[in-house]
Recover the amino acids of this structure.
């Protein structure tokens, strides 16, 4: 157990020019919302920010409607970010060459089509029984070991790793190696040379797996992608990059956010009691948890304005970079009443934006929701006495990473 960290609350100093907010994006404890986001949402909904790396500044939209407008406006380009060293949270570029998040139509549409079928609701529902079996097996093991136990090691880590690896077709003996890569690629603290070396290694691994699957296809997504590559519908760079983004996101985002969800439930006992009294609330509760729990540090990938555009009350010149914060938008008081209150029975006024919006909406949204529902409903049903085994402020949180979440989650029952 690591000691509790002091609350790192960045208080951005004035930046290069008037009104540019320097945003170091320090590690934050627990599930607190970055104070800069809270402030901008209320006082300067379209602001200029400067992050730790990269060049220049970008615009940041925090209000729900502005965030939706920006993320669905075709005049804002992701591909244009490839040519520009935009202000950034990491010393390295997060996506690999050919990354789906950095393409525009028609390339973007083609790449999405190749994978969207594998993650549609019907396919995802087909995986629910398997996810349930994994949850039950993992909790059997945890019960055998007895309290206290680390829930991230027993449930919220292993379940998403197994689910995505089975869907993708990554052999079991490689899971640990692939898992270790995520630490470097999705980090804000590893030097560029190290992440470049790891990316080269990942590239080789997935290219070799593609050759094996193209030669002897199996019933998994990787075989489908390898076939598309063999038929000339997908370049090797695009194939590797798609595989990596899907595999690493699924192994990182789902464990982190579901661990944070359980932490949130265990630190809101009144709300959790409602769930235990009526487990049919789980799907609604999970939606509210996605709205409430901040997964990422800082901001995601920017877009570039290909012409002058209006965002809220601000005119953004052509060529400028624009970020959005889906996390801030999920707390917009003009959309969600009492937005900073967790209310598992909330009839939300609007859908949450935790999975983004528009053309780049998360490919794995249905898969992630299904896994969160399985884990939370199983904990509610099997462990009515589940509680933190340490005071909340002693739960250790990950540092220097893009995605936030508990390092470990010690529980008893
Ligand atoms: C609960 C966990 C997850 C959350 C909160 C999440 C959230 C997001 C967000 C906010 C975006 C970016 C939207 C944008 O660029 O504007 C995104 C994109 C993406 N996510 Fe997820 N994600 C999660 C899990 C997953 C999983 C399990 C997969 C794999 C199946 C996945 C695959 C992707 C891909 C491929 C993209 C890029 C889509 C594109 O650019 O068209 N994510 N996700």
């Amino acid at each position: 157990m690591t000691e509790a960290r002091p609350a790192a609350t960045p208080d951005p100093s004035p930046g290069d020019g008037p009104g540019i907010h320097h945003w170091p994006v320090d590690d934050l404890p627990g599930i607190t919302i970055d104070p800069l986001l809270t402030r901008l949402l209320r006082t300067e909904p379209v602001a200029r920010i400067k992050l730790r790396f990269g060049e220049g500044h970008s615009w940041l939209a925090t209000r729900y409607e502005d965030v939706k407008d920006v993320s669905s406006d075709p005049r804002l380009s992701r591909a244009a970010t490839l040519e520009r060293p935009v202000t950034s949270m990491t010393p390295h570029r997060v996506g690999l060459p050919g990354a789906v998040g950095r393409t525009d139509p028609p390339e973007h549409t083609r790449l999405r089509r190749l994978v969207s079928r594998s993650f549609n609701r019907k396919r995802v529902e087909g995986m629910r029984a398997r996810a349930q079996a994994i949850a039950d097996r993992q909790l059997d093991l945890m019960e055998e070991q007895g309290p206290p136990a680390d829930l991230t090691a027993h449930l919220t880590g292993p379940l998403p790793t197994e689910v995505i690896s089975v869907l993708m077709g990554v052999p079991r003996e490689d899971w640990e190696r692939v898992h270790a890569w995520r630490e470097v690629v999705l980090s804000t603290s590893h030097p560029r040379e190290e992440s470049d070396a790891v990316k080269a290694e990942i590239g080789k691994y997935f290219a070799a797996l593609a050759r094996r699957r193209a030669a002897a296809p199996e019933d998994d997504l990787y075989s489908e992608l390898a076939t598309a590559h063999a038929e000339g519908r997908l370049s090797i760079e695009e194939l590797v990059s798609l595989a990596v983004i899907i595999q690493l996101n699924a192994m990182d985002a789902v464990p982190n956010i579901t661990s944070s969800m359980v932490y949130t439930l265990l630190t809101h006992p009144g709300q959790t009691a409602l769930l235990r009294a009526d487990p049919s609330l789980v799907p609604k509760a999970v939606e509210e948890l996605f709205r409430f729990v901040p997964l990422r540090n800082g901001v995601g990938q920017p877009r570039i304005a290909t012409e002058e555009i209006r965002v809220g009350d601000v005119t953004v010149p052509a060529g400028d970079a624009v970020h959005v914060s889906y996390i801030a938008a999920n707390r917009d008081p003009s959309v969600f009443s009492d937005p900073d209150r967790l209310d598992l029975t909330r009839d939300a006024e609007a859908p949450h934006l935790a999975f983004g919006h528009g053309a780049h909406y998360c490919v794995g949204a249905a898969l992630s929701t299904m896994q969160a529902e399985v884990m939370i409903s199983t904990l509610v049903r099997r462990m009515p006495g589940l509680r933190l085994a340490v005071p909340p402020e002693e739960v250790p949180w990950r540092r220097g990473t893009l995605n936030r979440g508990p390092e470990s989650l010690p529980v008893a029952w």
In short: The pocket of protoporphyrin IX containing FE is lined by residues 71, 100-101, 112, 119, 245-246, 249-250, 253-254, 257, 295, 300-301, 326, 354-356, 360, 362-364, 367-368 (CB under 6 Å). The two ends are 19 Å apart (CA to CA). The CA atoms of residues 261 and 289 lie 6 Å apart.
